[in-house]
Write a structure and sequence with these properties.
six-stranded antiparallel beta sheet, GH, single chain, Glycosyl hydrolase-like 10 domain-containing protein, Jelly Rolls, seven-stranded parallel beta sheet, globular, TIM Barrel, 2 domains, alpha/beta
Length: 461
């Protein structure tokens, strides 16, 4: 492997708004560096059964054969490019773990002293052997990225174990020789999800055990401009701790019928970034962008570093759907909205926030898009914005992108009626259906597109 190839992860984001590079050193089944205390990834997997595993092993070993540490190569390159570097560690499992301790196998995870001691040894190694700025503890990787740290059946009662683990990790990272390190944590977006996992994040913040937190969930890869993070921003800032808003990578994750994975556009990323800045985050964080990174991705990485660059740029707000399995480890969402039958007296609504001032004369156009399953043109279906009907606004109907025969997109030009900066509500009423048609309709998507121009837009009187 050439050094130029080894540097690519860092070099491809250099020159954008990115000032910190965070590298996952573990996939919970081995470490991507020559550890002295843990299992090096791939050493227990030979002969390899697929291309990416073989390639990963060969690339790492080709650097090690040149007396180069793959992790230090990235750290040095990040520093050369003016970026800070953090090693991110998934905690729920590790290579060589006793299967009886693994929560995925019915074990008790961090209840076992052996598990806590092993993970702490990795943290100490990362903090003292490498000259990175700090370490990030990844508690949000379960489910989806690794097993839980604690068995969900008993996690809340063992929250103090996790708090003590974070306290000890903090002392190790901050107390390393020479320059103290920083400690961050990926945690879940809501108090309830963290409590279910045995993570007393509010105590960590009150005690000042971490320097930054990133609210997120591996089970929610769809970008969420409405992520409910006010609670953690308030608690963190009360203790001089930073919060970073996570720009998840997808517009669609492929779980809905007749869809595939689609990455969020720069306009979607800008909308979410704008809402996060309004929520008073200290910075933004992203990952898993469409790769190789092209102009669109680098554009996103550039504007996300500066709140001023999001203010008057085109935006595409959209609401994510709640999971089909509400027992899964995912926080709630406004959509979909099912309307079982026509009833002119019954109204349904969804709520969303935007960080644009509709009075700004640089706004050229605002379009509200509603995707409705099983809607036909003969239905009397009314959409209102903040309590005012959109019946006087121009409405275009187009086929659904995933299945043209199962519903319609309604596109409203918001000329006479516009949303407000902050919280907005969209209401739906199904007044009537055609004769001999009694099936339900379902609002699957609500989106708002805002386009800006260089010059002021003059509205007709």
């Amino acid at each position: 492997m050439r050094m130029e190839d080894a540097w690519i992860p860092v070099d491809e984001v250099a020159g954008t708004g990115i000032d910190t590079f965070i590298y996952g050193v573990s996939r919970a089944d081995g470490l991507f560096y020559p550890s002295r205390v843990g299992l090096e990834w791939g050493s227990d997997r030979k002969p390899f059964q697929n291309a990416y595993e073989w390639r990963c092993w060969e690339n790492m070993q080709s650097l090690i054969a040149k007396d180069l540490d793959p992790l230090q190569v990235l750290i040095d390159r990040a520093h050369e490019k003016g970026m800070e570097f953090f090693s991110s560690l998934r905690l729920g499992a590790y290579g060589g773990m006793n299967p009886e301790h693994n929560v995925a196998e019915g074990g008790r995870g961090f209840v076992h002293t052996e598990v806590r001691d092993h993970q702490h040894a990795i943290i100490e190694e990362l903090a003292t052997r490498y000259d990175a700025e700090g370490i990030e503890l990844d508690f949000a990787a379960s489910p989806g990225g690794c097993p839980f740290c604690l068995n969900p059946d008993e996690a809340p009662e063992h929250a103090s174990l996790m708090t003590d683990f974070v306290r000890d990790a903090s002392a190790t990272v901050r107390g390393r020789p020479e320059q103290p390190g920083l400690l961050g944590a990926r945690v879940y977006p809501t108090v309830e999800l963290n409590q279910r996992a045995g993570l007393d994040v509010e105590t960590w913040l009150a005690k000042g055990y971490v320097d930054f937190v990133v609210p997120m969930a591996y089970s929610c890869f769809v970008l969420d401009a409405q992520m409910p993070i006010d609670w953690i921003v308030k608690a963190a800032h009360a203790n001089d701790i930073s919060v970073y808003g996570m720009l998840q990578p997808y517009y669609l994750d492929g779980r809905r019928p007749n869809t595939k994975v689609e990455h969020a556009t720069p306009q979607m990323m800008r909308a979410a970034a704008s809402n996060f800045w309004e929520a008073d985050v200290d910075g933004l964080y992203t990952w898993f962008m469409d790769w190789p990174l092209e102009d669109g991705e680098r554009r996103t990485l550039s504007f996300m570093g500066d709140p001023d660059l999001t203010r008057e740029g085109d935006k595409h707000y959209f609401l994510r759907q709640r999971p089909e399995n509400e027992e899964s480890y995912v926080y709630g969402a406004e959509l979909p909205v099912s309307i079982a039958a026509a009833d002119p007296a019954k109204s349904y609504e969804v709520e969303f926030s935007i960080n644009d001032d509709p009075k700004n004369d640089r706004i050229r156009r605002m379009i509200l898009k509603i995707n409705v399953a099983e809607l036909v043109s003969q239905d009397r279906f009314e959409v209102s914005l903040n309590g005012t009907s959109l019946s006087t606004e121009t409405c275009r109907r187009t086929p659904r992108w995933n299945n043209a025969y199962t519903g319609q997109w309604l596109e409203f030009d918001l000329d006479g009626l516009r949303p407000t900066k902050g919280t907005n509500k969209v209401q739906f009423v199904l007044h009537s259906r055609p004769d001999d048609f009694e099936g339900e309709i379902r609002v699957d998507d609500v989106e708002l597109i805002i386009e800006y121009g260089v010059f002021p837009t003059q509205k007709s009187s």
